[in-house]
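Per your request, structure below.
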């Protein structure tokens, strides 16, 4: 029994090290930093404009919207497979300390993703694998949970409740409960999470020319779509143009039907 336990820990450590290396490689591959012109439309059909700046911060990004006539908002983001996932809040609002972002790859009933709290940008993202229904509804078991930096692991489950292209998620870890607002983008699911409230979430996909995405204010919140067009040379070279593949979310409809 002791030998089996040692072998399991060694395999887990190796998996964590491989994932940290992969996270570093993914971060290097997708660079969204720059300034963008914004063209948006709410679910009510009202159009709006503005600018968005995206700045790299270690493994993550800081995102700032300046909306014409609508004020400003700030966000924290991760990227995976050419998708930028953002947890955001209105300017002047202090987000909960535990606010963070998760990005999952969807493969049938398996969700395999990375996650990071907004105050841990200097640590490699954690990893989480969920197993459950392929329609993003019901209970999912955490079959693998690795904390940021790969230093420890966790177990538990998450309850999903889907409505159209929006997903409400409640995680139950051994000692904590987290609340998440998610949007699906092709083969990816982007979720903003917090401890006390369902945060707002946005997801953007690079097609090599601009960023196209959607946002949701969480349960009972508004929603809409946005296109970000590079406005400066530092944002001109977006990932995605030379690496098309059939599983790339940029090759499938945004917020695909379930």
């Amino acid at each position: 029994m002791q030998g089996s336990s040692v072998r399991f820990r060694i395999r887990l450590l190796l998996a964590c090290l491989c994932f940290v290396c992969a996270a570093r490689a993914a971060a290097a591959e997708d660079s969204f930093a720059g300034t963008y012109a914004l063209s948006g439309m709410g679910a009510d059909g009202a159009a709006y404009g503005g600018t968005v700046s995206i700045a790299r911060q270690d493994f993550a990004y800081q995102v700032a919207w300046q909306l014409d006539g609508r004020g400003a908002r700030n966000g924290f983001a991760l990227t995976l497979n050419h998708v930028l996932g953002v947890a955001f809040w209105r300017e002047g609002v202090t987000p909960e300390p535990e606010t963070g972002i998760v990005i999952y790859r969807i493969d049938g009933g398996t969700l395999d993703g990375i996650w990071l709290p907004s105050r841990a940008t200097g640590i490699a993202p954690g990893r989480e694998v969920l197993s459950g229904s392929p329609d993003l509804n019901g209970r999912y078991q955490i079959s693998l949970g690795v904390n940021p930096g790969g230093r420890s692991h966790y177990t538990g489950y998450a309850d999903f409740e889907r409505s159209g292209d929006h997903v409400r998620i409640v995680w139950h870890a051994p000692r904590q409960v987290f609340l998440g607002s998610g949007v699906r983008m092709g083969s990816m699911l982007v979720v903003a999470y917090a401890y006390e409230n369902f945060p707002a979430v946005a997801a953007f996909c690079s097609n090599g020319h601009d960023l196209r995405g959607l946002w949701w204010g969480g349960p009972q919140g508004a929603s809409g779509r946005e296109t970000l067009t590079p406005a400066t040379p530092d944002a001109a070279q977006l990932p995605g143009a030379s690496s098309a593949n059939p599983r790339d979310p940029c090759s499938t409809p945004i917020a695909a039907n379930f």
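Helices lie at 2-29.

Regards,
D.
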